[in-house]
Amino acid sequence: MEIEYLWKTVWSGGGGCPALYRTDGGYVVQGVKLDDATRAALRDLADDEDAVYVPADVLDRLREVV
């Protein structure tokens, strides 16, 4: 899969993330791993899936590009 970097959170500091990338037909989100309690609260998380926390400012900017 090829990905194109779009942007990261304004609060990331020196090169940190979360960040958003575009790919054919969708997006890839890079973020902070969730703790076990939060992961346990997710519905139907499959073995090949995971979830990350992403600040709103990373996703809110999508309105500008779609």
Shape: globular
Q: Which stretches are low in confidence, meaning pLDDT under 50 for 5 or more residues running?
A: none
Rg over CA atoms: 13 Å
Termini, distance in Å? Answer: 21 Å
How do the strands line up in the largest sheet? Answer: 1-2-3
SSE sequence, one letter per element: EEEEHEH
Structural class: alpha+beta
The helix count comes to 2
How can the largest sheet be summarized? Answer: 3 strands, antiparallel
Q: What is the number of strand segments? A: 5
> What proportion strand?
25-35%
Number of domains: 1
Helical amount: 10-25%
Could you characterize the architecture of this molecule?
The chain is of the alpha+beta class and 66 residues long. It has one domain. Helices cover 15% and strands 29% of the residues. The protein contains 2 helices and 5 strands, in the order ββββαβα. The protein has helices at residues 36-40, 56-60; strands spanning 4-8, 19-23, 26-30, 32-33, 52-53. The strands form 2 sheets. Strands 1-2-3 form a 3-stranded antiparallel beta sheet, with no helix packed on it. Strands 4-5 form a two-stranded antiparallel ribbon. A hairpin with a 2-residue loop joins strand 2 and strand 3 (26-30). The longest helix has 5 residues, at 36-40. The chain is globular and about 30 Å long. The model has no long low-confidence stretch (mean pLDDT 85).
What descriptive keywords fit this protein?
alpha+beta
